[in-house]
Amino acid sequence: MSIVLNVLQTIPNWHLVGLFAAGMIAFIISTVSGGGGAMLLIPVTSSMIGTAVAPPVINLATLISNASRLYLFWNDIDWSLTKYYVPSAILGAWLAALVFSRLDAGWIQLLVGVFLVSTIFQYKFGKVDKTFEMPKAGFIPLGFIIAFMSTLVGGLGPILNPFYMNAGLEKESLIATKTANSFFVGIVQIGSYAFFGVFTAKLWVYGLVLGLGAVVGNVIGKRFLTGMSISQFRVMLLMLMVISGLIMIIRNVNVLF
User: Which segments cross the bilayer (predicted)?
Assistant: First the structure.
């Protein structure tokens, strides 16, 4: 306890308030629109505590957020998809750590961005609910690929949403199942950070404060989600995917030149 108090004395109060507020707002939006909370936190968190240490702090906050979402959406989880996704995703995350410095992450984010922007045309601006059939077994290679890429480039935002939608998940079931999958992979990520000594006492505090804000955001966001129709949720989902895709394209368009 004394260590925590000593650390708190070295952190400006506006950092703690700002991180809590950022976590709350980002995960209200994330809960209502099907993800992207970590991506929304990147610029704010980086500006407050530094770009180099933002990823582990955001990942810790996301793990805390996902734990609270598991509680809130437990009855809506499609465990039949989780058992396909998680094992291969864990393998992908570990393998990506071995080749982290050898691939150009900019190309990956650029291609992901183009795919996300294209979803608004694939789903005809929210008028259709499926664009291709997604078998459950397809989540085995998908889990590996997405975990591999996200470990290399950081959060990939809502890239998984089209696959969940085409597997027949909507609203609460989509949020719940995506959360369960992310939670188990997140445990491996945070365990890796801790094992390699990435976390300092100050980063633990930052992550916990950001995570507490995210928990509050989840509770508020679920109330908004309950009042939304499936069609409204689908439109929000598409809006988030397109915005996330445009951000990725703008940030990485320089790899073309």
Answer: 14-33, 40-64, 84-100, 107-125, 137-160, 180-197, 203-221, 233-250
